[in-house]
Amino acid sequence: MTTYKTSDICDACAEAQACELSFISLGRRRAFAGAIRTVRYDGGLGVMRDLLRQPGQGQVLVIDGGGLRWRALFGDIMAGIAAAHGWEGVVVHGAVRDRAEIDGMDIGVKALAIIPRRAEIRAQGDLDVSVSFGGVVFAPGARLIADEDGVVVLPMGLSETDISIADAVAATAAYARDPGLKADH
Hints:
22% helix, lyase
């Protein structure tokens, strides 16, 4: 499997949306990619639990918690369920907990913060709705790529394999070698 760097994708694809938030990386997968599924936190995450129990191969869950940092929206139990069902990764617009346990799992998780107290889990939340944060629209079905540099969302119907990375990498390398050149990417 070829790994695509978010920085190279941004250089090669002007339409790629780069999330403007700085995330903490957890789990053994520091880079992951997949089709977006979304959950919006609305006082509970029951719908997230049910979704993560479905086969997740080729999918990334985006949890929009409105930037909630005083309660964890995701922890080791949900990460274990996600890993067991083959999810590629999880992006949390909010806090998570159980960092040490998640770091030992074969899953990638991006979050804004770590806090020990969990959020309310009784209510359901909204499933597969477009959510926005960090200057990016996370639409169900769009392709998300994440690595240590950040999170990028591609236009609907576009995959990282559709993007010619080589030309952008070569242009950056040429620019670095010759201070007289102007970068056009």
